[in-house]
Amino acid sequence: MEKTDKRTSILLAAEKLFASQGYEGTSTRQIANEAGANMSMINYYFGSKEGVFMEIMSNRIKGFRIALNSINGENITQLDKLKMVVDQYARRILDNITFHKMMHRELSLSQRPEMYDKLKDAMSQNLMVIERIVNEGIDQGMFRPVDVRMVIATIMGTITNVATAPSKITAGSKLDIKIPADREILTERLITYLKDLITTYLTPKNDTEHL
Amino acid sequence: MEKTDKRTSILLAAEKLFASQGYEGTSTRQIANEAGANMSMINYYFGSKEGVFMEIMSNRIKGFRIALNSINGENITQLDKLKMVVDQYARRILDNITFHKMMHRELSLSQRPEMYDKLKDAMSQNLMVIERIVNEGIDQGMFRPVDVRMVIATIMGTITNVATAPSKITAGSKLDIKIPADREILTERLITYLKDLITTYLTPKNDTEHL
DNA sequence: TCCAATCAATCAAACGATTGATTAGTTTTG
DNA sequence: CAAAACTAATCAATCGTTTGATTGATTGGA
Questions:
Q1: pLDDT digit string, tens, across residues A37-53
Q2: Neighbours of A181 (CB within 10 A)
Q3: Would you state the pLDDT for residue A171?
Q4: What pLDDT does A43 receive?
Q5: Contacts of residue A30, Cβ cutoff 8 Å, sequence gap at least 6
Q6: Which of A37, A67, B124, B158 is deepest in the core (most CB within 10 A)?
């Protein structure tokens, strides 16, 4: 019978509403109502509506600090490192689709500069990890000399596309991203594909084997 | 000294504001002010704020009906068809970045069902063109048997990522998407890369030549 | 142990400002 | 002169925020 306190119930309600209606599209009254709390509790705990938003995003960003850097330390090939990054990154995003959508909206609008910078920093951090791995792979002669920025755009863009594209937009696909089981299947399918893609594209043709 | 009429100046102002602040984040007063028109002109010409939005998006969608289908009729290989599609699609999106961002926000929120369906239809139309080309290529034995839905996600996702990712997010890149000349360079770079990517990935290894 | 003081938590009510929309009237134009 | 284009003023509704009072629990001195 552990009752969640008002503070967290406000955060949960706000995140749910922000995700489905956007920041401006959600009123403090809606949040209070959904949370079963009085309107003034929002300002009492978070100072303002924007304070609630900041709290949500900050918490998420904290949880999003992927252990990508530890991958760099491992004693494996650059290709295997890259595969591990793709694996972690894809899972992380597909497990937090609503947040990922919110993040993209915020980056696309950039109305709150402070939040914008936070998100951009968190993102470019992951980006630099990938960039370094690919560059090292090229230097070692393991990878073809490719356009690194574009390869990153492909990795991130493909994941984002799968995560945000309207479900069932493809005629043949019966997968619905909203159903957990289907989402899991889609995640594995995406990861398998992406690993195959980067292997095929980055590895020189005369290589003897890879899979 | 060709003066634009109020109707179109409202549309232009609204699009500019919607793009940078979002739909809910933009007020009719802002639109009227930016357009140099009286507030009531918005309702006079478009019925409502939503009417303005619908008009903007509808016009854009109309202009977005790419001549992709004509590509299908040409007497060239599936690979060349796919390259042409990528070429057209990338240029179209990078030439209309603000609209593309608006579209993604609208798809992500789906507050206006009518508009959501319109956008989804327009999108899945392009999607099916690509899908068909790839499937035919596979049937002909020209392409490897790949995950078609994922390949499409890569093509669209990569283009979207380049179009929407914060400029200069990559440390080394000095390209600023907001400067027209830089954007043009980036477009060519993206197209070159994507053509290379799909060729490398889709074409079986034992092929004698491709570029 | 009791009482007064203090505390954070919560509430209903109201604040001024802004929202999208409409009115009723005026100007412009063909 | 009639239709179209335009304006200032105002509408009710909603916005985010604040206020002042009330609650129940905690604390500290007598």
A1: 999 999 999 999 999 99
A2: 9
A3: 47
A4: 97
A5: A17, A21
A6: B158
pLDDT at A174: 65
Mean pLDDT of A156-162: 97
> Cα–Cα distance between B55 and B68 in angstroms, integer?
24
For A65: left if phi > 0, alpha if psi spans -120 to 50, otherwise beta; the answer is beta
Q: Mean pLDDT across the stretch A55-62?
A: 92
Q: Which residues of A touch B176 (CB under 8 A)?
A: none
Q: What's the CA–C1' distance between B113 and C22, in Å?
A: 26
For the beta carbon of residue A44, count every other beta carbon within 10 angstroms: 13
D14: residue with closest CA to C1'? A27
Q: What is the pLDDT of residue A210?
A: 43
Q: Count of alpha carbons within 13 Å of A18, Cβ hemisphere only?
A: 27
Q: So what's the pLDDT on residue B210?
A: 43
Mean pLDDT highest for which of A3-7, A125-129, A195-199?
A195-199
Distance between CA A153 and CA A118 in Å, rounded? 20
Q: What is the pLDDT of residues B34-54, one digit of tens each?
A: 999 999 999 999 999 999 999
Give the angle subtended at the CA of A55 by the CAs of A51 and A58, to the nearest 5°: 135
Structure confidence at residue B44 (pLDDT)? 98
pTM: 0.91
Contact at CB, B25 and A205, closer than 8 angstroms: no
The dihedral built from the CA positions of residue B104, B108, B110 and B111, taken in this order, carries a sign that is: negative
CB-count burial class (<10 Å; 0-12, 13-18, 19+) for B127: buried
Chain B partners of A162 at a C-beta cutoff of 8 Å?
Answer: 150, 153, 157
Task: Give the CA dihedral B187, B156, B82, B129, nearest 10 degrees.
Answer: -130
B195, B159 contact by CB (below 8 A)? no
Place of tokens 């696909």: A173
Query: Which DSSP letter does residue A110 get?
Result: -
Q: Is B200 left (phi over 0), alpha (psi -120 to 50) or beta?
A: alpha
Question: What is residue A102's three-state secondary structure?
Answer: helix
Token pair belonging to A7 = 């503070």
CB A129, CB A74: distance < 8 Å = no
- Smallest CA–C1' separation from A36, nucleotide: C10
- Which residue positions in chain B have pLDDT lower than 70? 1-3, 66, 168-174, 206-211
